[in-house]
Amino acid sequence: AQYKGSNFPDVAVHDFVVHPSTSDLVIATHGRGIWIIDDISPLRALTPEVLTADAGFLPQPPAVQYLPSWGGWSEGDATFTGPSRPDAAMIPYYQRTRHIFGDMKIEIFDAQGKFIDTVAGSKHRGVNRAMWSMRLKPPKVPPAASALGGAAVGPRVLPGTYTVKLTRGEQTYTTQINVVLDPRAKFTVEDRRVQFELVNRIAAQLNHMTWLVDAILGVRDGATQDAAK
Questions:
Q1: Which residue intervals of 96-188 are DSSP H helices?
Q2: Cα 104 from Cα 132, distance rounded (Å)
């Protein structure tokens, strides 16, 4: 039967397997292709104690900062496509009931307790997954430079341990997430630190340049309005 609320088709399933290293559930359907549920290990953590709690985080593997890559091989006559794996950290959490009253937010802090980002969460009951981009906010780019592509995304955070805080009304829950390099990376964490510092200096210059442009335009527009009087 079709699972209510999902996009899984109403079709026969003749085989499935759990990937031994990533805990992905791979489902082979009859006539509708192969479907994959990423990392079902959080579901295995739903013990009776967890199910009776109001809410809480579920275990999660290290968040890998994968490098974008493309094999470039020929597909032949058996072509198939599927969505790429998320370029973000998945943060699983559980809620016994739907959250209705009060604020609900998920926040990320670094090892020094500095606020990094707020992540969108779901208020639905059961198992939910919040997605953290593992990036800082992008810098503001002056209008004249935006034609060159602007800054669509901010720099990736450094590998390390980060704290995740879930606030539901007056209740708070915390967990930690370990961000690691792509195992295929030929560079070290120290290399990433040097790159991170450089990118942040450039971002600061862009933000300052944007502020200067806004100030100049403000003076110009004010002068134009005064001249019209």
A1: 143-146
A2: 16
Residue 155 contacts residue 135 (beta carbons within 8 Å)? yes
Q: Which helix (H) or strand (E) holds 214?
A: helix 189-228
Query: Which residue's entry shows tokens 């779901």?
Result: 122
Predicted confidence (pLDDT) per residue in 97-113, tens digit: 888 877 889 999 999 99
- Strand, helix or coil for residue 143: helix
Cα distance between residue 117 and residue 100, in whole Å: 23
Q: What is the pLDDT of residues 5-19, one digit of tens each?
A: 567 888 899 899 999
Beta-strand pair 34-37/25-29: antiparallel
CB 164 within 8 A of CB 56: no
**Cβ partners under 8 Å of residue 11, min gap 6:** 29, 30, 31, 32
- The set of residues, in sequence order, having a beta carbon less than 8 Å from that of 18 and lying 6+ positions away, is 24, 25, 26, 40
Burial class (CB in 10 A: 0-12, 13-18, 19+), 131: middle
- Bridge partners of 115? 109
| Residue 63: other Cβ atoms inside 10 A | 19
